[in-house]
């Protein structure tokens, strides 16, 4: 088992349990550290609390007393806990460093790490890289939101294994020495401003993925995204661009027929199973990372000709009487929904709505030309209805949830229509997660059949 041999802090507060907090606490104890855990929602009767106490971990639950910081050298924060949390703010006042669990994972296995970030496409790209390496007979593990907790994977990672991890801005905001061997930045779009407050803060958090990289590491980036190009200009890593618009001598690119890496033809575009231009960007990023870690063209081709997408990300669900249902519940912002809409040329019925973060949705207008009807729900239903009318869409229906949205969309549809759940909003006004929202849609579609 790998341990934290160069972690100079002795007394650690883990703020927030969940999976990542629990894993971090156990790793720290196994590495010889003194650990205190604080969680607001847990109770003393929870099995995980009792388990941690058997490992000589001090656990304080049900409140956030500021005394939890007494004697603490560093705070390991659950990524979802905001920086206005009372304990976090007090830690900042006391000058206590604040990190997230991925910093611990990075200190265990940085030389074997591929990290992927961006506003959209992270899950698809992370999965593609993992599958490409696996189909090239390499030993590889996946971590983060779509796999096991990063520290659990890193702790057991062998020297010959590679760890592929999806990284959010929340996680990257709390790193110090984190330095992947290969970093990937897919795109940048204003997102999570309720957490980061400004786009500059959000961008700076994303930039932490390459902050510590040097010329011996690689930075794969989207050369078609001006915000990304501006952000990485001072990066010291060896830069590997990808582009759907211009040939890239140092990276991946495509013409009307093929995807290339540098001057080598990799795969024909019409052989790629994923739909949408945005997925070509994800494919090129994945090809670049996989090749840099020794993947084979055969392994890459096997994946790209069969992989049709991850669940909840432009996932094809069913063909019912000629209507094509797609689940894109992971589209929690306007950019993601814009890209989903660009993926289809045929008549589309869009299902959208969710948590209101203050967006006006005008940025969706250029992408609604093929949308013949909209079914809207959640806190943003009226805003989206207004955008639909503004774009000239006459058929707009308000419903209670995505189950009713699927039913109503089918009633409005004709043969060869695409029925697309792509909410452009987070799910938290009605659902615990976007997965729960997507599963409700999938079940509703199967019921229609």
Automatic annotation (TrEMBL):
<comment type="pathway">
    <text>Cell wall biogenesis; peptidoglycan biosynthesis.</text>
</comment>
<comment type="similarity">
    <text>Belongs to the MurCDEF family.</text>
</comment>
<keyword id="KW-0067">ATP-binding</keyword>
<keyword id="KW-0961">Cell wall biogenesis/degradation</keyword>
<keyword id="KW-0436">Ligase</keyword>
<keyword id="KW-0547">Nucleotide-binding</keyword>
<feature type="binding site">
    <location>
        <begin position="118"/>
        <end position="124"/>
    </location>
    <ligand>
        <name>ATP</name>
    </ligand>
</feature>
<keyword id="KW-0694">RNA-binding</keyword>
<keyword id="KW-0132">Cell division</keyword>
<keyword id="KW-0573">Peptidoglycan synthesis</keyword>
<dbReference type="Pfam" id="PF08245">
    <property type="entry name" value="Mur_ligase_M"/>
</dbReference>
<feature type="domain" description="Mur ligase C-terminal">
    <location>
        <begin position="312"/>
        <end position="425"/>
    </location>
</feature>
<dbReference type="InterPro" id="IPR036615">
    <property type="entry name" value="Mur_ligase_C_dom_sf"/>
</dbReference>
<dbReference type="InterPro" id="IPR005762">
    <property type="entry name" value="MurD"/>
</dbReference>
<dbReference type="Pfam" id="PF02875">
    <property type="entry name" value="Mur_ligase_C"/>
</dbReference>
<comment type="function">
    <text>Cell wall formation. Catalyzes the addition of glutamate to the nucleotide precursor UDP-N-acetylmuramoyl-L-alanine (UMA).</text>
</comment>
<keyword id="KW-0963">Cytoplasm</keyword>
<dbReference type="InterPro" id="IPR036565">
    <property type="entry name" value="Mur-like_cat_sf"/>
</dbReference>
<protein>
    <recommendedName>
        <fullName>UDP-N-acetylmuramoylalanine--D-glutamate ligase</fullName>
        <ecNumber>6.3.2.9</ecNumber>
    </recommendedName>
</protein>
<keyword id="KW-0133">Cell shape</keyword>
<dbReference type="GO" id="GO:0008764">
    <property type="term" value="F:UDP-N-acetylmuramoylalanine-D-glutamate ligase activity"/>
</dbReference>
<dbReference type="InterPro" id="IPR004101">
    <property type="entry name" value="Mur_ligase_C"/>
</dbReference>
<keyword id="KW-0131">Cell cycle</keyword>
<dbReference type="InterPro" id="IPR013221">
    <property type="entry name" value="Mur_ligase_cen"/>
</dbReference>
<dbReference type="Pfam" id="PF21799">
    <property type="entry name" value="MurD-like_N"/>
</dbReference>
<feature type="domain" description="Mur ligase central">
    <location>
        <begin position="116"/>
        <end position="290"/>
    </location>
</feature>
């Amino acid at each position: 088992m790998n341990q934290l041999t160069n972690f100079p802090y002795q007394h650690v507060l883990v703020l927030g349990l969940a999976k990542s907090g629990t894993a971090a606490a156990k790793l720290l104890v196994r590495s010889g550290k003194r650990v205190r855990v604080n969680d607001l929602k847990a109770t003393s009767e929870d099995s995980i609390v009792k388990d941690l106490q058997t490992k000589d971990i001090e656990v304080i639950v049900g409140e956030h007393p500021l005394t939890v910081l007494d004697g603490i050298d560093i705070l390991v924060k659950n990524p979802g806990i905001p920086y206005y949390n009372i304990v976090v703010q007090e830690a900042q006042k006391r000058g206590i460093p604040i990190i997230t669990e991925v910093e611990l994972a990075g200190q265990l296995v940085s030389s074997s790490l591929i990290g992927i970030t961006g506003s959209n496409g992270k899950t698809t790209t992370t999965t593609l890289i993992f599958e490409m390496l696996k189909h090239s007979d390499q030993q590889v593990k996946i971590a983060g939101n779509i796999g096991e907790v990063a520290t659990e994977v890193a702790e057991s990672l062998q020297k010959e294994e590679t760890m592929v991890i999806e990284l959010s801005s929340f996680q990257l905001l709390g790193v110090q020495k984190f330095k992947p061997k290969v970093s990937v930045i897919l795109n940048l779009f204003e997102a999570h401003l309720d957490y980061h407050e400004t786009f500059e803060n959000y961008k700076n958090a994303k930039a932490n993925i390459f902050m510590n990289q040097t010329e011996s590491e690689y930075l794969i980036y989207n050369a078609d995204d001006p915000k990304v190009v501006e952000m990485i200009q001072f990066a010291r890593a060896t830069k590997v661009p990808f582009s759907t618009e211009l040939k890239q001598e140092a990276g991946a690119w495509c013409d009307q027929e093929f995807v290339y890496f540098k001057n080598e033809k990799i795969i024909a575009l019409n052989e790629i199973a994923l739909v949408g231009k945005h997925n070509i960007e994800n494919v090129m990023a994945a090809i670049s990372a996989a090749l840099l870690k020794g993947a084979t063209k055969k392994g890459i081709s096997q994946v790209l000709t069969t992989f049709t997408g991850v669940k909840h990300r432009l996932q094809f669900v069913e063909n019912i009487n000629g209507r094509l249902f797609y689940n894109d519940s992971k589209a929690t912002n306007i950019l993601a929904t814009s890209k989903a809409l660009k993926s289809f040329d045929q008549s589309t019925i869009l299902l959208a709505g969710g948590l209101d973060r203050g967006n006006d949705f005008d940025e969706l207008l250029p992408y609604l030309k093929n949308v013949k009807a909209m079914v809207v729900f959640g806190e943003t239903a009226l805003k989206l209805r207004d955008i639909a009318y503004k774009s000239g869409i006459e058929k707009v229906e308000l419903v209670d949830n995505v189950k009713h949205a699927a039913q109503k969309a089918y009633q409005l549809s004709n043969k060869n229509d695409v029925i697309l759940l792509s909410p452009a909003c987070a799910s938290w006004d009605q659902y615990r997660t976007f997965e729960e929202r997507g599963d409700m849609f999938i079940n509703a579609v199967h019921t229609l059949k």
